[in-house]
Write a structure and sequence with these properties.
The protein is globular and about 70 Å long. Strands 1, 2, 3, 4, 5, 6, 14, 15, 16, 17, 18 and 19 form a 12-stranded mixed sheet that branches. It starts with a helix and ends with a strand. By secondary structure, it is of the alpha/beta class. The chain contains 20 helices and 25 strands. Helix 4 packs across helix 18, helix 7 runs antiparallel to helix 10 and helix 13 crosses helix 14.
């Protein structure tokens, strides 16, 4: 079998203007980036405001494992299958981060016969959106340090600078650094920090903004430091907003590309779901809903992270109301949750499957709390046995969910026809009654504990003294009505990545909280979660190269 990149590079791509025609988008409404990718113009997006919305379907998954789940692959496969059914549909995805691409996780273009293309462009620089976000963030940091150097009129407490510089790569050496070393002209000496771009507040703001005016308003509220009296200092206070917006002017428009079967895809924004809110941009999702009868989108990592944040943060902020959820699992991943080692997952093991399937069960129960129909799909592997498949199907049906076995990786849209049909059946019944997990007026502490207990299955929450102090400060600053963005390991319901399955006798440990005033949520850091990842002993970067004829190799 060819690798993903070999499949993608051998595919026949349509000119992007022909993909746009499927959605009645004229060539003049595109800002072309070569033949196969384009941005939708701002004027065109504005012209869609009075159109009715289509139906929104979220694709999520069980907790990720080394065995793989295939959430993006299934999202793309569904879109391709709907195209085969002549349903006017759009896939709405996040842009991949360079961190995982050169690290260990991989890209975000799908796999096998269910990919978006050009996959090398998407997984690397694409249309430069992430570079613009990185530069805007770091410009704000430079303006902040310059303000301090030039006299510090705002009396900024240099011990309480909360804005971090960012870089869209895994680089642990940048987690804690010292800036300003050298002569007096080189700035004020202080400790500084880096986060990966996808975990920055600028990325969160970018993905939650509804238009340029909203983007600028949110940027102006982004807290960058505190003054000597303990009052917040914002990007607006240091006069950084206009220049930041100028850097983001082109990036704010969604990107249009295609699948291997030429289905239209909007790809825009890309916050991580373990340390940010994990969804593509509000602008892209709302635009897709105006262009299509059905929009298929995804949220990062497992449903305890990406789906919870999609439903409790993005939908709340953007006024979105999804109609159904697809929950992706694999037999291999469920056996891994049941204690089977990665190298043994190809062997049948019904006992391990019965043990590990508790992870799937908890995700089903969690999603039902939101009042949404749940469709469980198994991402097919050649090593799946009939007995294992039958057990999972029975388990799913006992919990009142629809079930589908999808072969999208091997067959593309053809392999996801059953799944797409079940989605259309659910949408025709229109039984969704979406509601967030908690109300706005609940205290931040109660919101954290609601998520920990109702979604993670924790018996309680512990807080460091620093976290408790910051909770009081946030409530005093008027942030008590904001939703909570939990920063937690993606590998477990708990904050301990080694606790697999569906643990229940554990406590979530909150070590710090902070207010993202521009994004409009409160971040709670749990366990040992890092906002700047590091590279593994053998990162994917070792295997990536360019051949003499200019072809990229080793990119999955």
């Amino acid at each position: 079998m060819k690798s993903d990149i070999e499949i993608a590079q051998s595919a026949e791509l349509y000119h992007i203007k022909d993909i746009a025609k499927k959605l009645d988008i004229a060539e003049d409404d595109l800002e072309l980036y070569g033949k196969y990718k384009a941005k939708l113009s701002g004027d065109f997006i504005d012209s869609l405001k009075d159109r009715p919305d289509g139906k929104l379907v979220l694709v999520t998954a069980i907790n990720p494992t080394p065995a793989g789940e295939g959430k993006t692959t299934q999202t793309i496969g569904i879109g391709e299958a709907l195209g085969r059914m002549n349903v006017r549909s759009v896939i709405a995805l996040r842009e991949p981060s360079l961190g995982p691409c050169f690290g260990i996780k991989g890209g975000a273009a799908g796999g096998g016969m269910a990919q978006v293309v050009p996959m090398e462009d998407l997984n690397l620089h694409f249309t430069g959106d992430f570079h613009a976000i990185t530069t805007a963030n770091n410009l704000c940091a430079a303006i902040l340090d310059n303000h301090i150097h030039q006299g510090n009129e705002l009396n900024i407490d240099t011990r309480r600078i909360v804005l971090k510089r960012c870089l869209d790569l895994n680089d642990r050496a940048l987690r804690n650094v010292v800036v300003g070393l050298g002569s007096k002209a080189d700035g004020f000496v202080r400790e500084d920090h880096f986060t990966i771009t996808v975990a920055s507040e600028v990325m969160a703001i970018f993905c939650l903004a509804s238009d340029m005016d909203d983007l600028k308003d949110r940027l102006s509220k982004m807290i960058v430091a505190y003054d000597l009296d303990g009052k917040p200092v914002t990007a607006g206070d240091i006069k950084a907003v206009g220049a930041m917006a100028a850097l983001l002017k082109d990036a704010i428009n969604p990107n249009l590309i295609q699948t291997l079967e030429h289905s239209p895809v909007l790809v825009h924004g890309g916050p991580f779901a373990n340390i940010a809110h994990g969804c593509n941009s509000v602008i892209a999702t709302k635009t897709a809903l105006k262009l299509a009868d059905v929009v298929i989108t995804e949220a990062g990592f497992g449903a305890d992270l990406g789906a919870e944040k999609f439903l409790d943060i993005k939908c709340r902020k953007a006024g979105l109301s999804p109609s159904a959820v697809v929950l992706v699992a694999t037999i291999r991943a469920l056996k891994y949750n049941g204690g089977v080692k990665k190298e043994d997952l190809s062997s049948p093991d019904l006992d391990a499957l019965k043990k590990g399937i508790a992870n799937l069960g908890r995700h089903i129960d969690n999603l039902k709390q939101y009042g949404l129909p749940v469709i469980v799909t198994l991402n097919a592997f050649a090593t799946d046995t009939d007995e294992e498949r039958a057990y999972v199907e029975g388990y799913v049906r006992e919990r009142g969910c629809l079930y589908s076995y999808s072969e999208a990786w091997e067959k593309g849209g053809e392999g996801a026809m059953d799944l797409a049909g079940r989605i259309m059946d659910v949408l025709s019944e229109d039984k969704a009654s979406f509601k967030p997990l908690y109300p706005d007026d609940m205290s931040i502490k109660d919101k954290i504990e609601t998520i920990a207990k109702k979604i993670y299955g924790a018996k309680g929450v512990s807080y460091s003294s620093k976290a408790l102090k910051e909770l009081d400060n946030i409530e005093a600053m008027g942030g008590g009505s904001y939703p909570v963005c939990m920063a937690k390991t993606q590998y477990s319901f708990s904050d301990d990545p080694s606790l697999l399955g569906a643990p229940d006798d554990f406590v979530i440990n909150v070590r710090d909280v902070y207010l993202s005033g521009g994004a409009g949520f409160v971040v709670a850091l749990t366990g040992d979660i890092m906002t700047m990842p590091g590279l593994s002993k053998h990162p994917a970067a070792y295997d990536i190269d360019v051949t003499e004829d200019g072809m990229i190799r080793g990119l999955f």
